[in-house]
Design brief:
The protein is mainly α. It has 4 helices and no strands. Helix 3 packs antiparallel against helix 4.
Length: about 150
């Protein structure tokens, strides 16, 4: 069995787990901050995400093909549209809104966050299936290679 592929997959899983842990910590800290601090944190996260997206997009463009690529493009476009919509709402001046509108906007933004988490959950499930398929394919290839050496 190839050592590099399972290690690479494990590195991705470890990185994802670290990212989720950081998200939980960030959400806890943000709950204790004022609006300006949260906006500053959001701006930094936006910049970090944009850099990672560019890198991921380049990698995906190199690795994906056919149907998988079109599905990925559709998912990216949908996620980007939802993020733009969410960001548009966040960027609006909060101080000009009355309490009822602000409460509605907060509820909508929270709903969008839950939807983004649902999407992330779906992506993790898809990644799990892809990881298992990759491990299975590598095991099968190794078995075939071992069988051809003994024949």
């Amino acid at each position: 069995m190839s050592v590099s592929e399972p290690d690479r997959i494990r590195e991705h899983l470890d990185a994802l787990q670290k990212e989720v842990s950081e998200l939980m910590d960030s959400a806890d800290r943000a709950g204790q901050e004022n609006s300006g601090q949260v906006k500053a944190r959001a701006a930094q996260v936006k910049a970090d995400v944009a850099a990672r997206r560019k890198s991921a997009s380049e990698k995906a463009g190199q690795a994906a093909a056919g149907r998988t690529q079109s599905q990925w493009e559709s998912i990216k476009a949908d996620a980007a549209a939802k993020l733009r919509d969410l960001q548009d709402r966040i960027d609006r001046k909060q101080d000009k809104l009355d309490v009822k509108v602000a409460e509605h906007q907060a509820n909508t933004t929270e709903d969008n966050a839950v939807a983004a988490l649902d999407f992330a959950w779906w992506a993790v499930e898809e990644a799990e299936m892809a990881v298992l398929d990759a491990i299975d394919a590598r095991a099968w290839a190794d078995e075939q290679a071992a069988g051809s050496r003994t024949n």
